[in-house]
Amino acid sequence: MSWQDEVNELQRRREWSKEMGGEENVERQHKGGRLTVRERIDGLVDSGSFSEVGSLTGRSEYSENGELMRVLSAPYVMGMAKINGRAVAVGGEDFTVRGGTSPGTHRRKGGQGGFIEDLASKLQVPLVNLADGAGGSVRGAEKRGYTVFPGVNSFGRSVQLLGEVPVATAVLGTAAGGPAGRAILSHWSVMVRGTSQVFSGGPPLVKRALGEDVTKEHLGGPEVAVDLAGTIDNVVDSEKECFYAVRRFLSYMPQNVWELPPCESSDDPVDRCEDELLSIVPRTRTAPYKMHRLMELVFDKGSLFEIQPTFGRSLITSLARLNGNVVGVIANNPMVNGGAMSAKEAKKQTHFIEMCDCFHIPLIFLVDIPGFMIGRSAEEEATLREGMKTVFAIHRVKVPIFTLVIRKCYGMAGMATQDKDGLDFKIAWPSGEWGSLPIEGGVAAAYRRDIANSADPAAREKELEEELRQFASPFQTAEAFAVEEIIDPRETRPFLCNFVSLTRDRLKTLVGPNDKRGVSP
User: Fold this and answer.
1) From CA 353, how far away is CA 519, in angstroms rounded?
2) What separation in angstroms does the CA of 65 have from each of 61, 204, 236?
3) What is the structure's pLDDT at 114?
């Protein structure tokens, strides 16, 4: 009366599923510097924590006499696991099985509209996508006998998740079509240099449609996808580094929008005051300095996790901690274009603002911005439109915002660093200066006739600049309480730690979805 025969078959089917696309295909994957999806899951999650769902899904093969010979595993592997002791839903395609292309089962295991996304949504846990698949195939029409409209498996749940739980995607091979789309529909994404590419259509489609010969790397490698387009946020040098980066990103995130970000104990003293901050900003107003170094001196040691470091490089967006509390840092980088905001920086800032607001992460602005990038190229890139989107985004923010002016804060780009609809708490270093636009250039526009009619236009312009500069002292603004406080640069860390500690109770009132849209891709 035992069920041992059926259990034996169960074990046999499980073993088949672990073979993925077969020894030859797995060996080819390894030679290409890539792991299988099962190896990736093992490398990502806590040891022994993965509970697979749908392990028996696949396509069966029978002998002529009807004996089951083998079940070819479905290309998508997924289930529940833990990362740093916290529950996650995780899944991904395996390129060794039909290039990661779904066979079209009754209920999809993964991808848009798949069980794994339902699991993350219903259990309110983060979702990790491991993308390595080619998306749809024209061969689907041959199997069905008819064609279907795009979106037969919609992105509806993918979009919904952006307002519910953290979604991280690792592009670990060639991602096109649906897998590429899901990489964009993430809060954060990462790819591997030399082995990962992402694009809407691959080289064969480009060749057929446009007559262009292009390699996968030149079409969608990191130099394009990360550095130029910002399609993917970060790039690392190995799959092992990729797994570490995913784990680290999630360590700053709450489990879902109904919880607060995790607060860790910190042995970095709150009252740490670094003398180096006193001289980090040059007295020459146009001279650059290292904003990254400034951040290292202020935030908890080792806590900075920069997002999109090679895209929109005049802006720095980073997750960090202050006395163990998670914060989002938006800092202008004077080493690149003087910290001016182009369309790329605006897109980067908007997405980061929305992500932090969605997951109840307070925002810290370190401001040194001369304004929007100007010139014909900036206008052609729609800098003004993208810049006003980030102004729009900051007006919708619910989380506490703290503005620290390091040096310059000018124009509409400067507006996008302030909490005008909230407390509007701004402090400044003695090096701070602000206004509708910088004196240089502003004088030339406002006093055009005066300058043109003078005996020495250049000398007159310089004279007017010096006359107006006397009103630019931050201390005169402080006298009028038009800036809330000016601090010794060395006091920055204790000041910010105190502010963030006071926001914790305020953040508790924000838990839950703060708008139906969530975070836009």
Assistant:
1) 9
2) 12, 41, 51
3) 83
DSSP state for residue 506 in the 8-state scheme: H
Question: How many other C-beta atoms are found inside a 10 Å radius of the C-beta of residue 361?
Answer: 25
pLDDT for residue 44: 98
Task: Tell me if 157 sits within 8 A of 200, measured CB to CB.
Answer: no
Domain boundaries, the chain: 4-251, 275-436+473-508
Query: What is the reported pLDDT for 22?
Result: 83
Which of 261, 123, 133 shows the shortest CA–CA distance to 187?
261
Amino acid at 94: D
**Comparing 4-251 with 275-436+473-508, is the CATH topology the same?**
yes
Q: d(Cα 164, Cα 156) in Å, to the nearest integer?
A: 13
* pLDDT for res 435: 83
Overall fold of domain 4-251: 2-enoyl-CoA Hydratase; Chain A, domain 1 (3.90.226)
Q: In CATH terms, is domain 275-436+473-508 a member of 3.90.226.10? A: yes
How far, in Å, CA of 216 to CA of 198, rounded?
Answer: 8
* DSSP-derived secondary structure for 156-176: HHHHHHTTTS-EEEEE-SEEE
- Cβ-proximal residues to 121 (8 Å cutoff; 6+ apart), any chain: 157, 160, 161, 164, 165
Low-confidence stretches of the chain (pLDDT beneath 50):
105-106
User: 313 pairs with which residues across the strands?
Assistant: none
What does the alpha-carbon distance between residue 134 and residue 130 come to, in Å, rounded to a whole number? 13
Tens digit of pLDDT for each residue in 273-305? 999 999 999 999 889 999 999 999 999 999 999
CB 444: neighbour CB atoms within 10 A? 15
